[in-house]
Design brief:
Layout: E1 25-28, E2 41-43, H1 45-51, H2 57-65, H3 77-83
Antiparallel strand pairs: 1-2
Length: 85
């Protein structure tokens, strides 16, 4: 249930995923053609997970602060993959 906070927030709940293992998600796909993913605005896995429920401005700001501000990276997702090596 989307409004059941206890579904995630339990005593054993680890609030942050390892960003080197979590996959960035597309917040904005940029412009056509959609196959060009280098202009995608990406957000971290933690931000995507948390803001799927917590969508008010303070919550989104907190999620971005603890992940990264949604960004277009020079080599798209590959930039993040390379940084994790």
């Amino acid at each position: 249930m989307a409004n059941d906070c206890a579904a995630c927030h339990k005593a054993s709940f680890d609030t942050m995923v390892d960003q080197t293992k979590g996959v960035a998600t597309t917040l904005d796909a940029g412009v056509l053609p959609w196959t060009n993913q280098l202009d995608d605005v990406l957000q971290g896995a933690n931000t995507a997970a948390c803001t799927s429920c917590h969508q008010n401005a303070p919550s989104v700001g907190h999620a971005n602060q603890n992940g990264w501000i949604p960004t277009t990276f020079p080599n798209g997702r590959q930039t993040i993959i390379d940084a994790a090596k």
